[in-house]
Task: structure prediction
Amino acid sequence: MVSFRKNETTAPVLHIGAVRKSFKNNLVLDNCSIDISENEIVTLLGPSGCGKTTLLRCIAGFLDADYGYINIDGQDMSNVPVNKRPVGVVFQSYALFPHLTVFQNILYPLRMLGTNRAEALNRVDKVLQTVSLKGFEKRFPSQLSGGQQQRVAIARVLVMEPRVLLLDEPFNALDAKLRSTMQVELRQLIKRLGRTAIFVTHDQEEALTMSDRVAIMRAGKIEQVATPDEIYDRPKTAYVAEFIGASNFLKAKVELSQIKLPDGQTLKTDYEGIVQVMVRPQNLSIEMSKTGNWRGTIIYQRNIGPLVEYHVETVEGANLKIVAARLESSLKFSDGSNVKINIINPELCIIFAL
Amino acid sequence: MTKAISNLKTKQPFFERLIDALLSGRGIWPAVPSLVVLIFVAVIPFIILLSLGFSNITISRGEIVSQTLTFDFLVNALTDPLYFTTFKRSLNLAISTTILCLIFGYPVAYLFIVGGKFTKRIILVLTIAPLLTSGIVRTYAWLVILGGRGVVNSTLLHLGVIEQPLRIMNTHWAVLIGMVQIHLPVMILPLIAVMSRHDSNLIEASENLGASRIGTLYTVILPLSSPGIGTGSALVFTLSYTTFVVPQILGGGNYLNAATMIYEQVVFSLEWSKGSVTSLILMITCLLVLVIIAIVTNYFSRWAKEQK
Result:
C-alpha cells in the first residue's frame, strides 16, 4: 500500500481511459478505465466472457477500441500498429515458433527490430540467463516441457525490453504444482527486472498471488481495482465478494441502524431496509451443541489439506461454508452432527445493499 | 486374468482373428486389404508391362509363340531424339504448371488462414467445387473460352485490342492454362491443410515481436508451410507430368507429351513394347523429380522432424 502511494505521483506507464469495444451489437468492453504505474503488476480478473482478454488485445493492438484512449508513456497508441507498440505479449498457448530453436525464437524480435548482431547476441545471452534456459538454446520448442516453453515465451518478450508486459493466462497450460511455483517465480522475476505487467486470468488465487493490484471485471466493466488485501477484505460489491474467495451471504433487516446477526450478536450500519451480510468461511466457527441461537447440521466435510471445509445446513434452511484449521479439536465432527454456529468477529462482516 | 483372455483369443475362428488383426491398428495389418488389391491391379500388371518392354515377341494367330530378352527398345528410346524432345516438353510443362499453381495457389491458402469464417467458406467452396466435375468437362470448357470465336478472342476483338483472332487453342499456352486451372485445387488443399494446423496466435505473436506483415510472411508463414508446398508440388508435378487429357484436348491432337506418346504407341501403332519402355522412362524420371522435391522439402522442414 505504501509503495503504491509513492507511485501515484509519477505519470502512469499505461493509461486506459473509457475504452469501449463492441463486436457487432455485443458490447464487450464498456467504459474501462485504469492507470498502471511503473513496476506495477496488475491482474485483470473475471469469468470467461467478461472482456478481460479483449482489453488485453486492445492494448496489444490486435483489436482497435471503438472509443477511448490507450496511452503508453503519455503517447496515444490508437494509430500505432501492432509491431511498433512497446508492448510484449505472452500468449496462453505461448505461440513459440515451431520452426525456430529456443535461441532463434528469442533472437527473433531483435532480428525484426534490426538490432546489430553483436548486441543482439549479447541480449539473448543475458535473457537466457535470466530465465535459466542456458544449455537449451539449440532445442526446438516441441522438445521442451511446458514450464520451459513458458520461460522461452517470457524470454522472447523480455529481450525486446517492452514498456508493458501483457500475459494472457500464462499458467493455464501448466499442472497445478508447477503453476504455483511459476507464479511466485514469475512475480519475482518481473519485480527484479522492474517491469510493468498486466496479467489476465480467471483464477482468483493466481490474481492474489501475482499482483500489486487486481481489477475485477464483470460483463465488460471494471468493477473494482484494489490491492489483493483490499479486494479480499473490503470488496465493493457482492459480485467481487463472491468472485474472490468463498463467502456466505445472509439476509438481514436493519432496525434502528443495527443488524441482529443470527447468532445473536449485533452490527452497526448506515444501510436501511433489507441488506445482505457477507461472512467469510473462516469467520465462522462451529461447536457441538443442540442449543444456541444459530443451529445447523453438518451435511458434509471436505478435506483441503491444512483446512477442513464444513458444509452446514442451518435450521432456517440456508447453506453455509465454514472453514477451520485442521486441528485435533476440529476433527471430532461427523456428518449429520448438530452444531451451534458463531460469527467470530462481526466487525469483519461486509454489508451490501440488496 | 490375462491368461484367460489369451486362451479365449486362440479359440476364435480364423476369420474372426483376421478381422481382429485388420482392425487392431498394429503393424501393417490395416493396410493389408489395399495391399492385396494393389498387388493384383498394380504390381502384377506392372511386371507384365516391364516384361513386354524387354522382350522380342513373335505372335502367330493371336498367340505368343516366342519371347526372348532384348534391350533394343530401351536403347532405341534413349537414342531417339523424338523421345528426348517429348520428355523435355513434358518436364517443361509439368514444372511450369507446378510453379504457376504455387504462385496462384499460395495467396489463396494465405487468405484462407488469415481470413474470417466467411472467407474460409468461400475459398473452400471455390476450391472444391471444380473437383466435382470431371477433368474432361473442365478441359472442354476452355475450348469455349480460348477458341477462335471464344470468349477471350471475341472480347478482345470487340474492344479493338486485336484485329485478328489470336491463335490460343492448340498451342503450348492453351495446354498450360488448362493444366494450371485443373491442378490448382490439388496445390491449394495441402497448403491449407498444413497452414491451418499451426497456432493462429503465431501471426499475432510475430507482429507483436516487431515483424511487419511481409516480415511475418517470410519468417513465419512461409517456412511453416514448407511441408505443404512440398506435398502440393509433388502432387501437381506427378499429375501434370503424366497428364493425358489436357494436352490431348487443348493441344488439338498434335501436342505430343509423354502420355500422349504412350497412347499413340499403344493404341495407334500397336507397338506395346515401345509403349512399355516409354512408360518405364516416364515413371523413373517422375520418381527422380519427386526425390528431388522430397529432399528440398525435408531440408526446409527439418524442424518438423524434431517434433515428438
In short: Residues 176-193 of chain A form the longest helix (18 residues).
